[in-house]
Design goal:
38% of the residues lie in helices and 10% in strands. By secondary structure, it is of the alpha/beta class. Residues 1-31 have low confidence and may be disordered.
Amino acid sequence: MRRILLIVFAFIVASCVEKRKDVPTEKTAEEIGLRWSEQKAWDWYNEQPWLVGTNFNPSTAINQLEFWQADTFDPQTIERELKWSADLGMNLHRVYLHNLLWKQDSVGFLNRLEDYLKISNKYGIKTMFVLLDDVWHPVPKLGKQPEPVPHVHNSGWVQAPGAEILGDTTRHDELKGYVKGVLDRFKSDDRVLLWDVYNEPDNVAGQPGRKELEVLNKQEYSLALLKKVMHWSRSVNPSQPLTSGIWRGTIDHWGTPDSLPTVDRYMIENSDVISFHAYDGDTLDVKRKIQELKKYKRPLLCTEYIARGVGNTFQAVMPIFKANNIAAINWGFVSGKTNTIYPWISWDMRFTDEPEIWHHDILREDGTPYKQNEVDFIREIITSE
């Protein structure tokens, strides 16, 4: 009798094990989409023209929330300004999103992203969406956004997700639906060229009234969130590459991962293509960054540059990028509510009128150039062989 019971028990156990094979389980890191190989990254990049564009935010929006919320989404301005950029020959824009927009109305938000992509595609402009951002105000709020502080650079730009969620690791998973939902909707859409999953993680707001609201030990929290965002993004396995751009640190260390801050090293080692920021006033520093980053043997995209006041101009920097086949995406296009014609120092130094030397941006709100010779140069270098 005992022998019979043991046989029956073994049969039941074996049956349960067999049935469990059909039960779906959470994918492990090894089973989700993997980082692209160097060859795959280059195969993708070599299919592209020289990628040139801007970080696009319509002149009527002070930040990401005003850009995309239903009450202030402005397709007329978007279309007008995208046409102007296409007229210059631009073919790629980097565009910031925000997690609160998903929380507010995920369906409406996705529909507005679709509307934007229809307009940009009409003018032959691809899109790089930015999912999260650690820069400027750490307390984002839905609803009506503040009016710009006169003559102050980016007075209304907001972080995503903001300090409340970033500084509480138990709340990081609240972003999972947003990240995976947006990626899944556009993961095979050829109008979206690539994804920037997290802009400048661990950048600390230092402006008066903001630094007191920042997360303490921010690097620790930003790294934890970055790892989750990259994992969620990989699990969707989009057809487009993923990146998160290096932006700080000693230039000589950029090509040596062991010498980089932990966050920066993670970005470098987990991006399919390498993106970076180059606001350097000395073009030799820009060249040094490029030489260091070439050590990773992957395509390079500069996703932020132009700081005219320190000598970082289109005429000085664009030829370097073109000679090295590096994507060139400057900050700012049409001067508007972000006030990015004013330098960063406008947070500490009072300005009362338009600066003689614009910090960012290319056109005025009516479409006329800040400098005609600059616009002529941009158009010529893009279109010339």
